[in-house]
Amino acid sequence: MVSTAAPEISAAAAAEPAPVKKAESKSLSFYYGDFQALKNISMPIYDKKVTALIGPSGCGKSTYLRCFNRMHDLYPGNRYDGQIMLYPDNTNLLNPAVDPIEVRMRISMVFQKPNPFPKSIYENVAYGLRVRGERKRAILDEKVEEALRGAALWDEVKDRLHELAFNLSGGQQQRLCIARALATDPEILLFDEPTSALDPIATASIEQLLADLKEKLTILIVTHNMQQAARVSDYTAYMYLGELIEFGVTDTIFIKPRNKQTEDYITGRFG
Amino acid sequence: MIPLSHADWTDAMPKDFVSDKLARRRLRHVKERIIEFILFLAASVSVATTLGIVLILLKESFVFFRIVSLWDFLTDTQWTPLFADAHYGIMPLLSGTLVSSAVALLVAIPLGTIIAIYLSEFAPFSVREVAKPFLELLGGIPTIVYGYFALMFVTPLLQKIIPGLPGFNLLSAGLVMGIMIIPYVSSVSEDAMRAVPMALREGSYAMGATRFQTATRVVTPAAFSGIAAAYILGISRAVGETMILAVAAGMQPNLTWNPLEPAATITAYIVQVALGDLPHGSIGYQTIFAAGLTLALLTLFFNVLGHLLRKRYRQVY
Amino acid sequence: MSDTAVRVQEIRALIAAHKRWDIVFGIVGLLALMVGVLTFAVLFIQMVIDGAPRLSWDFFTSFPSRRPGQAGILSAWVGSTLVMLVTAMVAVPLGVGAGVYLEEYAPKNWMTDLIEINVSNLAGVPSIVYGLLALSLFVYQFGFGQSILTAGLTLALLILPVVIVATREAIRSIPGAIREGAYALGATKWQTTSDHILPYARGGILTGVIIGMSRAIGETAPVITIGALTFIAFLPPAPVSSEFPYLSFEWIMSPFTVMPIQMFNWTSRPEAAFQHNAAAAGLVLVVMTLSMNALAIYLRYRLRKNLKW
What we know:
The structure holds 3 protein chains of 3 kinds.
Chain A: H1 11-15, E1 21-32, E2 35-46, E3 50-54, H2 61-67, E4 78-86, E5 91-92, H3 100-106, E6 107-110, H4 121-131, H5 137-150, H6 154-157, H7 170-182, E7 188-192, H8 200-213, E8 218-222, H9 226-232, E9 235-240, E10 243-249, H10 250-255, H11 260-266
Chain B: H1 6-12, H2 15-67, H3 70-75, H4 91-122, H5 125-140, H6 143-161, H7 170-194, H8 198-206, H9 211-222, H10 224-240, H11 243-248, H12 266-275, H13 283-316
Helix pairs in contact in B: 2-13, 4-7, 4-10, 5-7, 6-7, 7-10, 8-9, 10-13, 12-13
Chain C: H1 3-51, H2 57-61, H3 74-105, H4 110-122, H5 127-141, H6 148-172, H7 176-184, H8 189-218, H9 221-225, H10 259-267, H11 272-306
Helix pairs in contact in C: 1-11, 3-6, 3-8, 3-10, 5-6, 6-8, 7-8, 8-11, 10-11
């Protein structure tokens, strides 16, 4: 039932210059112990575009996302099969010889619930730099400001950088987590339902941010919210029970899905 | 069967049946209240114990301080209440207590913290499953046994390294006491670290942090208040420990800051007096309560200090 | 070289440097654990070497003596057993009652807060302070003297927090649905508690009681403080007799000694022969407390394995 559409042939994409692949999963399968959570997923991730993963809960979209920075390595009993290629250097991220830390330094992640560290706002953003051994105050100051500006948070927190991050509102905390991820210039930024714990206003500000961010980096986002996928993404993948049902340019997927099941899900008849 | 209406139902019942039911319900209610009261009494025994401790220490010490001035108690450098030339300066006992506790904590805090971090963040599942119960067993060994070990094994061993070390000394007792305290520090710290939500660790790992960086920069600070509680528990144990010191550090009051010397601690002194045959109500008898009060205040001091430290730290970072 | 390649090179160098700390700490952690393991091994072996030759039937059936070769621990283990009996009879009902009250009955008010803070603070009070409390209150004020009763009560107060905390944890792990089920059938609070909560919490409570008792059996300082004798060459009156009224509680007011005190007494003798007695008594004590602790750990392990609500 897999009918992975090649987006190159879709009309909307043909009008623009051909997109460049930043990464690509090739026959990716994933197992939690004996349970196969992902089945043979092949799909490109285009450079400086937003790709949304949608599907009913339990379809494996978060599992797929977490393969990209090897989060599954943290827990015993997990197994990958297949490849995730990262371009332009052609590295297979899932290669056991590649250190998961190396992957995470290149591909950062923002989680479902904001998870700031119990540190000051400043130290939260500086964390990734400190982990990389950066000690020079001037560089840290500069990067922290840049990241906070990038996450549209600078104006709100510039006077209280040394306050505990927990004092921020939920939406601010999530933008702080985005700033934290941005500070180290990742090549890809993964978002795991980043607005599911936020109110509509905070959600809107994060969505605006996504639009700005894709100028500089590649974004892969899991969302349970179809309108959000339609609003923010360039490409959409619909997953069901660990399989990729359909992948394509977002407009095409939402207006004229090829697959009946995708259509049912998108129109709300199912899911 | 024909369903009866409510009125029929009550009419159908004999009068005494209803009142019987009501009486039983009332009885049941009374019984419930009595049980609740009994349980409440059981719970208040703990409050009564604390009150009892405070009142008795204050009352018996009050008798003591009517004879010995507080100034002498705090400034006199000798503690010889049982001699003809009696002196009542707490300093010698306090110094023994503090020096032995310091030695113990120098062992227990670093080792306990390292073990906690190791077990919580590094150790494979199988190591943790074996190590945790083992540490618990270590903490369950009676302290008199540790005392024997300090006196009969550790001291002779130390005497080979440090020539001239007396048979009773604070170092040996302190070292063994430190080992004894490790399980308390490590288990409470580890519980605190395990309570740190996984989301924080994931956040750190997602930034490309190593295990060590995540453990030291995220998990440990996040668990700080729990770890501080573990340290305070360790200090309380050290200050209040009795048998290891009574056996291995000697019972001679000695105002010293040198762990290589023998010295009695507050607790060892209480044991020494209790072993003798002092008449109830004599000044010698009262001294152990004054010593006990000092010990209780010392423990209280460290607990309050820990509390303040935790509060302070939470605000700063 | 492209930008990406340079970046990857840098990252790899960085990881290599940082990962060294992971390895170093892995080793340091294991070494720290080994300190504990090694100490325990040495302690145990030392005890066995010194004490094992003294362990014989006679050692358990003889009173202490001035001649080390004939001395035994009869009065000590009998004393320990009787004191533990009193301790258990006092600490278990009080501790379980308090735990049940705090979990099932206590209203949210200042009194409950006070009790809770108290329980956690009492756990940090040095054990010798309990001895002082008992000396003034039980020995003199209440006139119990230096008896088994006094010692049992003192140790009961000492382990009360352990029993309370264990009871509370055991009760807390029972899901609310069980209570609702019982209430829905018209059970009163006490019926729910005694028919459902307590039986289901039994395993957890038992674990806590065993740990508390193993602590009490090794406690020396508070028992010395109340003035327990160190040299006792007789047994308390037997609790059961062949004549009417068959049961006697005279033993409860009898002078006594306990295992750790006997060991302390021998440890403080200068003669080497007595040290061997001390080691033998210590060995018995360690085996006793360790097996109690091991039993508790095993019980908890089994509980955790079987408990699937």
